[in-house]
Structure formats: structure tokens, C-alpha cells
């Protein structure tokens, strides 16, 4: 890396650490922070008129490691920033640099991020920038595209089953966020539709694999769990509604009707 021997060595250290069997994510984060300063000083963080292909290639690889690192440490804003920076390399410098084997995996991850945040309009905008054949053939792109279709259909079971078909382990992070959103929606509907549910039925409905997860979720939602009956009793704000005095209202309406007859 022409920006200095120290920066070049730090890049090699970062790459070796992150690709090791058990990477130290704290060390990787420290290396990335220093390298981002170096890239900024070399005007490679968001390059303008840069033409040195070697510098651009190394900078792109650093940003790609940063994007993956962000998913591993569950830092969504950091992932979003890295993707925004990488888009410049993937579009503006596509003719100057060789294709990256990480572009479509990261593009698919970003699509999944937008789905998990319910940013559907941005999801479709991002799809428009992808070559049509990739939408049909590329495994990393097809996966989030199919997920969006399942969501539109309300086929939540298919969304859940997609966890077993992820094209890369990092995809599970955003799918789990998406499932959390789906569970909240199902829970809200269940509170309105049922007064109670057996624990096993609730587990199936909410896509939980064991009863402990259901119990913890019930506590978070403020539901009452009866271990002896193995049942969940839903308690919502609507439970405290004021009873309408139907008899008094009917009596008053009849009195008004009689008075109207007397007037006529």
C-alpha cells in the first residue's frame, strides 16, 4: 500500500486476523479504525479521481472486511456505512478493478438488512441497480428476493425455513432480526384473536423451538403464563376497557322515543 509501510503491514495483519479460524474481533476493530484514518488521508475512503488500481484494490478489500466485521459484531449502522463506501468501488471503478467475489454476497446482505428494517422502497431501489440475470441466477441475490416475496404473501413459515438455506452464515443475523419483527406482528394479532393459548401451540405459532423461549417471550410481552395448565393468558391494554351500560342507554332511548310521540 503506497500510503506507507506501516499501513501496508496493518492491512496484512488485519486480513490474517480476520480470516483466521478464531478471529479476535476487538483487534480487527482496532485495526480497521486505524486503516480508515489512513484511507481518509489518502483520499481512498470515498475516492474521487483516484486512478491507482493497486491502491483502490487494497482499499476495497479493507472496506469489505469492515462490512463483514460489522455483521459479526452486530453493528448495523457500521455495516450500512461500509456498504455505502463500497458502492463507489462497485460502480464507479468497475472498469478499472477486477470483479470482487465479495460484491454479491455483501449486496445480498444489504438487501436483507433493508428487509429486516422494513425499508421496502429502498429494497426495490437497490434491486434496480442489480443486473437482471443476477436476480434470477445469483444465490446471494435470489435469497433476499425470495424472502421479500414470502413476506408479501404472508408466508412466514417459508421465511423461517429460509434459515436452513442461507448462502452464507452472516445472513442469519438479519434473518433473526426479521423473525423478531414477524413474531411481534403475530403476537399482536394473537392478543386480539385469543384469550389464551396452550404453550405448545404458541411455540408453533411464534416459530420457537423450545418452551423456554416461549416463556421468555411471554414475559417480555407481559403475558401471564400458567405452568400447571401449560397455557398462556394474554393481557393487553384492552383488558382495562370501561364497561358500557347497555341497559341504561336502551332505557334512555325508549324514553326519548315516547317524548317524541307525545310532541307529535
What this model shows, in words?
By secondary structure, the chain is mainly α. It is 67% helix and 3% strand. It folds into two domains: 193 residues, Serine Threonine Protein Phosphatase 5, Tetratricopeptide repeat, CATH 1.25.40.990; 67 residues, no CATH class. A hairpin with a 4-residue loop joins strand 2 and strand 3. Helix 1 packs antiparallel against helix 2 and helix 5 runs parallel beside helix 10. It comes from Gigaspora rosea. InterPro entries: 26S_Psome_Rpn12, CSN8_PSD8_EIF3K, PCI_dom.
Number of helices: 13
Order of the strands making up the biggest sheet: 1-3-2
Count of the separate structural domains: 2
Helix content: 55-70%
Residues in β-strands, percent: under 5%
Low-confidence stretches: 237-244
Based on secondary structure, the structural category is mainly alpha
Shape: elongated
Assembly annotation? single chain
The CATH class name of the largest domain reads: Mainly Alpha
CATH architecture of the largest domain: Alpha Horseshoe
Biggest pleated sheet: 3 strands, antiparallel
- Our Rg estimate from Cα atoms comes to 27 Å
Number of strands: 3
Q: Can you tell me the CATH topology of the largest domain?
A: Serine Threonine Protein Phosphatase 5, Tetratricopeptide repeat
Main features:
mainly alpha, 13 helices, 2 domains, Serine Threonine Protein Phosphatase 5, Tetratricopeptide repeat, three-stranded antiparallel β-sheet, 264 residues
Amino acid at each position: 500500500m503506497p500510503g506507507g509501510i506501516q499501513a501496508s503491514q496493518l492491512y496484512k495483519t488485519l486480513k490474517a486476523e480476520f480470516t483466521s479460524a478464531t478471529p479476535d474481533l476487538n483487534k480487527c476493530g482496532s485495526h480497521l479504525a486505524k486503516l480508515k484514518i489512513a484511507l481518509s488521508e489518502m483520499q481512498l475512503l470515498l475516492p474521487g479521481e483516484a486512478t491507482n488500481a493497486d491502491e483502490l484494490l487494497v482499499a476495497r478489500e479493507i472496506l469489505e472486511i469492515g462490512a463483514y466485521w460489522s455483521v459479526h459484531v452486530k453493528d448495523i449502522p457500521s455495516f450500512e456505512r461500509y456498504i455505502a463506501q463500497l458502492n463507489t468501488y462497485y460502480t464507479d471503478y468497475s472498469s478499472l478493478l477486477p470483479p470482487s467475489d465479495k460484491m454479491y454476497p455483501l449486496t445480498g446482505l444489504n438487501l436483507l438488512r433493508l428487509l429486516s428494517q422494513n425499508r421496502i422502497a429502498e429494497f426495490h431501489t437497490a434491486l434496480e441497480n442489480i443486473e437482471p440475470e443476477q436476480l434470477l441466477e445469483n444465490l446471494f441475490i435470489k435469497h433476499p428476493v425470495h424472502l421479500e416475496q414470502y413476506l408479501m404473501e404472508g408466508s412466514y413459515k417459508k421465511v423461517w425455513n429460509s434459515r436452513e438455506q442461507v448462502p452464507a452464515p452472516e445472513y442469519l443475523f438479519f434473518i433473526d432480526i426479521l423473525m423478531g419483527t414477524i413474531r411481534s406482528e403475530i403476537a399482536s394479532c394473537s392478543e386480539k384473536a385469543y384469550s389464551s393459548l396452550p404453550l405448545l401451540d404458541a411455540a408453533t405459532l411464534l416459530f420457537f423451538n423450545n418452551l423456554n423461549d416461549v416463556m421468555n417471550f411471554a414475559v417480555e410481552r407481559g403475558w401471564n403464563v400458567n405452568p400447571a395448565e401449560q397455557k398462556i393468558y394474554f393481557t393487553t391494554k384492552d383488558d382495562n376497557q370501561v364497561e358500557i351500560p347497555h341497559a341504561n342507554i336502551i332505557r334512555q332511548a325508549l324514553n326519548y322515543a315516547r317524548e317524541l310521540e307525545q310532541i307529535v
